[in-house]
Amino acid sequence: MLRRHVAAPPAARPPAHRRERPPRALLGAAVAVAACAALPLVWLVVRVAGADPDRVAALLLRERTLTLVVNSAVLVAAVSLGCLVLGLATAAALVRVRLPRPGLWWVLAALPLAVPSYLTAFALLAVRPDARGLGPLVAVLVLACTPYVTLPAAAALRAADTGPEDAARTLGRGPVAAFCRVTLPQALPAALAGTLLAALYTLSDFGAPALLRYESFTWAVQAAYEGTVDRTGAAVTALVLAAATLALVALERLARRRSGRARASTTTTATPPARLHPVATAAVAAALAAVAAVALLGPPAVLTGRILAAGGVPVDLPRLAVAAGWTLLLSGAAALLAVAMALPVGVLAARHRSRAVAATESAAYLGQGLPGVVVGLALVFLSLALVPALYQSAAVLVFGYAVLFLPKALGAARSAVERVPPEAEEVARTLGRTPWTTWWTVTAPQALPGIATGGLLVAVTAMKELPATLMLRPTGIDTLATRLWAHTSLGAHGAAAPAALALLVLACVPAALLVYAGGGRR
Known about the structure:
By secondary structure, this protein is mostly helical. It has helices spanning 16-19, 24-49, 53-61, 63-96, 102-110, 117-127, 134-159, 163-170, 175-204, 207-211, 217-227, 232-264, 278-309, 317-351, 355-364, 372-386, 394-418, 422-430, 435-464, 467-472, 480-488, 493-517.
């Protein structure tokens, strides 16, 4: 009797797209992008290293540096705590309470990302000219940064396993106690990751601290750059600021990885939102509406009120239209350049795994840890030293925007490419298509919505960027942000109102598209 010999199944091998070496052209383009992203930080380090060591030590150890460190640490801690508490409460209300028109509340919770913090600070000063210092600044930044906590925390609460919460209810715990003790900790890693993003925004913000007269690192760097001939002090202060922000970036990425592992390890249990007593539902909706009204409707209402109280403000419509046009043109060009720079790195990170790829991707994310004032300062000196003809040109400003906001486009591009099934690309390759043709006919059409979302995010952020714009904008060219700043720095609140309203309208349009694309209607 013949025996059947059954061949052992072959050992599992990684997919072909993981085993293949990345194309040289793709790898070279990604390395070039990473080098561009690291350029401002490298210049800053080289500039400080080339200065007199005794002078650098004296600048680092002076009392003013210690004051800036303490002030910035106190500000970051206060804003982070406020954002964590308000963000978790908002996320719990969005996910666990049945509200009328639920999609509306998601949009209102996300739209404050489109309102620049300096615009809210400007509105506060228009109402209370004596508002100065830590307290008003914390209130302004909490309103601006809470969506960084609300959105990831709400997503985590949606995916949380509510089985243990049900078990706690059967053991006699009340609904609020069971939720706080069992379900809320599952969303805490995502909320902490969002809190670190809020801390990063707070540390790098310039407009609101300058308007409310609170001495922070960004204000000190801008003042040192504009007020002295020897810029070593500005470079040293900027390097300390960059080191602090890079430390926050490292903490944020660690918290994000832990949050991802926590979500992956839980079993999703669909739990419909709770139907509260009509009075309790009305109270929750009123609280959400109050926060949205202060963050979204407050600034335009105050600005409109100032215009009406003054009996109208003379508006230079042609100049305002030119500023709005430059705002759209520069932010749109920055979005296109950031997406173009993000694509090679995003495709490389999505389709290949190696230490070189990980290092390239990490270098491309350096812009997330470089405040606008640091990138602006670096590009001013780099353009003067390397290409003087480009000093104070639109090209340098657009490049600065792209370096600053490259991480936003990169994260969207990588996620979009990862969602395209690799098997579809492999089938196209077996049919004889080249890698380039496969990309344009198979991968790009499916990844385009996600990539476009990253471009929108870059555009709405570039519209609001102030310190880099002040340092790098071409002479004679104004954006809405710089026109607003020029008037508010002189205390001309009425004259600044038209530019502020125009900036708010322009920024809210792509922000609303982002919420719509992200499923905010649900």
